[in-house]
Amino acid sequence: MIYELYYWPEIQGRGEFVRLALEYAGAGYVDVARGEGKGQGIEALMRGLKDAHAQHLPFAPPFLKHGKIVVAQAAAILLYLGPRLGLVPEEEAGRLWIHQIQLTIADLVAEAHDTHHPIGVALYYKDQKPEALRRAEEFRETRMPKYFGWLEKLIARNDTKGGWLVGKSVTYADLSAFQVVAGLRYAFPRAAAASLRKTPKLRALAANVAELPTIEAYLASSRRIKFSVDGVFRHYPELDDPE
After folding, report:
1. Are strands 63-66 and 29-31 parallel, antiparallel or unpaired?
2. Which domains does the chain have, with CATH numbers?
């Protein structure tokens, strides 16, 4: 049964965390809003958000349809997909631990987003630039290093010594760690490079994920949407290096 992913068609955003898992596993899926066939396109996405009869109505994309199952929120989608795609340990404790890591990565993504929208999502960046400069400084100097340092500790404490966050094989948390590293390298190239110099294991994990055959092929394909100033990770030079 094919997975149906619903997300905005022109940005990576939070939908990319789900795409990476599906692409790594070679799962059959349709990126619905990016499609041009019958029942696809942005209209299909909007119908899913306004379904008057849906009991499990998503608040916002991404959401996933799999048969009669509808799951929203990237972390919840990955919790659902993990065991089906072989991206979590078999035991429940391990699956829950991967989910906890993913939720913390979601917190990091939210904080990265709030550097350019610290006052309100409905406002333009130019309308909150002074506040964004202050928020970005705290993120660069304190929050990003703290998150990266925590991920570094998890890799170091992994008893299998395989270079992954948990166990000896790739989980969806590793794919998500790669994505935040890639996103922050785009948004904050100077600050991210400084943090990654202090977290060599995380840097190596990101490089190893990029070299996984299915991920490498995906990153080189047209399916991988480029980073831009319309997504979660946005590069405004003054937020990275105000001097």
Report:
1. unpaired
2. 92-211 (1.20.1050.10)
